[in-house]
Amino acid sequence: xxxxxxxxxxxxxxxxxxxxxxxxxxxxxxxxxxxxxxxxxxxxxxxxxxxxxxxxxxxxxxxxxxxxxxxxxxxxxxxxxxxxxxxxxxxxxxxxxxxxxxxxxxxxxxxxxxxxxxxxxxxxxxxxxxxxxxxxxxxxxxxxxxxxxxxxxxxxx
Amino acid sequence: xxxxxxxxxxxxxxxxxxxxxxxxxxxxxxxxxxxxxxxxxxxxxxxxxxxxxxxxxxxxxxxxxxxxxxxxxxxxxxxxxxxxxxxxxxxxxxxxxxxxxxxxxxxxxxxxxxxxxxxxxxxxxxxxxxxxxxxxxxxxxxxxxxxxxxxxxxxxxxxxxxxxxxxxxxxxxxxxxxxxxxxxxxxxxxxxxxxxxxxxxxxxxxxxxxxxxxxxxxxxxxxxxxxxxxxxxxxxxxxxxxxxxxxxxxxxxxxxxxxxxxxxxxxxxxxxxxxxxxxxxxxxxxxxxxxxxxxxxxxxxxxxxxxxxxxxxxxxxxxxxxxxxxxxxxxxxxxxxxxxxxxxxxxxxxxxxxxxxxxxxxxxxxxxxxxxxxxxxxxxxxxxxxxxxxxxxxxxxxxxxxxxxxxxxxxxxxxxxxxxxxxxxxxxxxxxxxxxxx
Amino acid sequence: xxxxxxxxxxxxxxxxxxxxxxxxxxxxxxxxxxxxxxxxxxxxxxxxxxxxxxxxxxxxxxxxxxxxxxxxxxxxxxxxxxxxxxxxxxxxxxxxxxxxxxxxxxxxxxxxxxxxxxxxxxxxxxxxxxxxxxxxxxxxxxxxxxxxxxxxxxxxxxxxxxxxxxxxxxxxxxxxxxxxxxxxxxxxxxxxxxxxxxxxxxxxxxxxxxxxxxxxxxxxxxxxxxxxxxxxxxxxxxxxxxxxxxxxxxxxxxxxxxxxxxxxxxxxxxxxxxxxxxxxxxxxxxxxxxxxxxxxxxx
Lengths: 157, 438, 299
Ligand SMILES: Cc1cc2nc3c(=O)[nH]c(=O)nc-3n(C[C@H](O)[C@H](O)[C@H](O)COP(=O)(O)OP(=O)(O)OC[C@H]3O[C@@H](n4cnc5c(N)ncnc54)[C@H](O)[C@@H]3O)c2cc1C
Fold this sequence. Notes:
The structure holds 3 protein chains of 3 kinds.
Chain A: E1 2-7, E2 10-15, H1 22-29, E3 48-51, E4 54-57, E5 70-72, H2 85-92, H3 102-115, H4 121-127, H5 138-156
Helix pairs in contact in A: 2-5, 3-5
Chain B: H1 15-20, E1 35-41, E2 47-53, H2 55-59, E3 63-68, E4 94-95, E5 101-107, H3 110-117, E6 121-126, H4 133-136, E7 164-172, H5 175-181, E8 184-191, E9 204-210, E10 215-220, H6 225-236, E11 243-246, H7 263-273, E12 277-280, H8 283-289, E13 296-304, E14 310-322, H9 328-337, E15 347-356, H10 370-388, H11 392-399, H12 419-429
Parallel strand pairs in B: 1-12, 10-11, 14-15
Antiparallel strand pairs in B: 1-5, 2-4, 2-6, 3-5, 7-15, 8-13, 9-10, 9-12, 13-14
Chain C: E1 21-23, H1 28-37, E2 42-44, H2 50-53, E3 63-66, E4 76-78, E5 82-86, H3 91-96, H4 98-103, H5 105-113, H6 117-122, H7 125-131, H8 139-144, E6 148-152, E7 157-161, E8 166-168, E9 171-172, E10 179-186, E11 192-199, E12 210-218, E13 224-232, E14 239-240, H9 242-248, H10 258-268, H11 279-297
Parallel strand pairs in C: 1-3, 2-3
Antiparallel strand pairs in C: 4-5, 5-10, 6-7, 6-10, 8-9, 11-12, 12-13, 13-14
Helix pairs in contact in C: 9-10, 10-11
The structure holds flavin-adenine dinucleotide.
């Protein structure tokens, strides 16, 4: 089946099988391996991407169901050699350990910061409640989101 | 001299690659013309493999080949400390837990590989499954392995030793004297459970075999690069210098990636097909076939004076090490050495057993046996404090290690002994005002 | 051996057969047409249950029926005496709908606690009902609000009281070829007060070990006029606790015998031991959450 979608601002036309999952389309067909699979069942959040500006676990979405949609993956955040402020904040605060959860964490953080430039600890925890970090680095991840929100806010002014 | 690193915030060298999604974990690599591998695992935790029928499986469109033990009869067993784990279970051989591999399916696509895997039919003879270590040490329990040689002569005559992988003993001071000095003796049994380390990245890898140089390269995570290299070489009868283990980014390990996982099966598949091969575990597969934190049963008997000084501590530790040794001998042993926690006890006696069962094998996990033991000794301390009517913080404090304390295995602690300060800080930070004001 | 560049390339499609068909109707009319011409179809809404239960087996599904493009099923309509929620309304949308928060606060709270942001983006109210898990979080609230469901097939349409919809764990009265179109909840004049309680091992991303929805209507003298209570994860189906409701009706705020109500609740459920808790644990928690829910609602 042929579907059309926009991935990281680029228009794509791809062939998929009915049972191809969005994560497989992204990783295998489009080579966007920044999106990770940790459980395949929506529990860990490593495969989180934005689909029409909603956070989704791409392991639980059929590629066909993404027909016509706009997808943002971790690869779509950087602009011409400049990291997105959220990415920079994750580096600066030491929020990255093994790194496997980080793409999903950053996508969920982006969704939050897009709507709220002053997130409280609780709001951050809620927004990231679908993303698991097993290195147990949550404190620094929360710090990173706060720093990023602060920086974006200062820039927006 | 200015400090370049110490006391400075240094960003991780690979942080940028990781926040941009560019860091390659094994499952992110892609080689030209690669094949997918899936493993057919044991359908029953304790059984003899009678026959394997691959006919239907081989008919699946896209299947390249399926390797079984019959194809490689000369493989050697592997393992971190003791080589007791087979690469493939052959006909007439025994599967000992649900993670044992029976066949390696190689196909053009992942989908074809698992379709074929599910079409392999097996004939097995079920054996009695031993899932409780206390059943494993009954005199009449069937032996899970036939060739255990590590058990010592010291072992108690009351228990069957056919499933005891190793026994260890600990002695400090005079335990009888210690109990004589005690005004109160408290005995309890503590039980901990299996825990999966659950690194977010499942085990995965690639292997490539160059038939001209005979060099085998494996891209897969390992916490012991050189041990993995040596173990792969000895299991497959290769020269070590022909085996290259290439470390990629690792998505967490926490002990789970100390053991061999995808490496051997990938190696066989690569040598067999002469094409790059890829194997990615599912979460279930990772949980079923790789190590866990050991469940320990800890029987603790502690003597204490009425003014709250510990005089004697005796433990018996039973570790469910599962089907294979992995780090079990060391984990259960080390756990026992920590039986008194950070508390001074002059007279200590202990015995520990690592016991084979048909459960998933126990291995390394953050703390290596000491976390289980902490549950036992800290609970024991709280119970004793309660019986003595003493504040548990004070009870801990007056028994805590200090400089020149000695551990149960006789090590003198000469420097950096901060137990007392830690207790002081904990009391302060938690605003602890004693049991009565809880 | 060189690593392949990560070009855009389609995966080799050499293996497996493609599924025969994937249907994506855009309207109820098209849907009925498809239902008429096809026997066995696997229905997909948000996919958050279906893709989990068919993990690694998705290729075995022959014919798909995807409801995602039917806009009529995503509507929420408010009438004088009822509200209609389309089966394809996601948890995320339920949470955002001010009207739901105002009129059906327990449903709002349950949706807010369900899964994670990712799951709420995709999972639908219809999927939650049709999965019919005793732990389905929207089900106890829908039961206490006297919800009915509208079920359609290629030729029929029927309305079923949710109280009779569930027939066992993951079982319900839907027949092959039937689709859940919408949920209808009566709007009542009385002002009610409700509480939602969910107990699980974590705060997020957790299937309930036990859950409770309680909705109470007081008369002007603060006497309980109506009481509805439902418990999830404690019986083969989500359950209305009528014995407790009967005790509550006619009581005033300070005459409620919490222990008696809690005991009645504990008696009516029939929990099992499973990975999310033992039966014994669930009975004791059922009592405790009944008590705390009553205290909260009468505050
Ligand atoms: C990580 C995770 C966490 C979760 N947490 C929770 C939780 O906390 N609480 C909870 O209650 N649930 C939870 N769920 C389960 C699930 O998300 C919900 O039950 C959700 O509402 C299902 O809706 P869906 O649209 O995704 O259903 P789908 O998966 O699309 O469908 C589910 C079933 O219903 C059928 N179906 C769907 N819609 C219709 C229709 N209109 N007519 C006829 N048949 C239909 C499908 O054929 C399928 O059998 C969780 C799931 C995951 C993966």
